[in-house]
Amino acid sequence: MSEYNTEQKKLLLDFLERNSDRSYTIDEIVEGIKSSSGEHSLGRSTVYRLMTRLCEEKRVQRFAGEGSRRFSYRIIADDHCRNHLHLKCLSCGKILHLDRATSDALLEQVRLMKDFSVSEEDTLLFGNCAECKIGGKNG
Fold first, then answer.
1. What single DSSP character describes residue 94?
2. Closest Cα partner for 48 from 91, 87, 9?
3. What is Dmax (Cα atoms) for the chain?
């Protein structure tokens, strides 16, 4: 039985790694795996269980969706990903990485203005990417 779970986890991680520039709800993950793997799909309860475990292992980041109580998830590509802020496009869902220097400067301004320490690992800034603004998808 544990080998079966290992295969399920591998299928989930493969999907997340192939799509590391985006975040997904559980339903989107289930549908994405089903679309890309055909008969090798995972059920919602299995994905919930595995995502909870991956979040505990700090391999996946979970955050509240835009204006809703639904959570979205994205894989943390490597330790480098934990050391800077990320931006999420509200139109296309793409995840963009801020460079370390820009992240540090922004976080320092918040600390100076409000004497508040921001958790980089748990912070995602929402807006619209340049491509969507040019294409008129700026919501």
1. B
2. 9
3. 54
Neighbours of 102 (CB within 10 A): 12
Residue 101: C-alpha distances to residues 105, 106, 112, 113 (Å): 6, 9, 16, 18
pLDDT tens track of the chain, all 139 residues? 344 557 888 889 999 988 888 888 899 999 999 888 766 678 889 999 999 999 888 888 887 766 667 788 888 866 556 667 888 888 887 888 888 888 889 888 888 888 888 877 667 788 898 888 887 665 5
Kindly report the pTM of this predicted structure: 0.67
User: Do the Cβ atoms of 76 and 114 come closer than 8 Å?
Assistant: no
**Neighbouring residues of 109: CB distance < 8 A, sequence distance ≥ 6:** none
Q: How far apart are CA 21 and CA 43, in angstroms?
A: 23
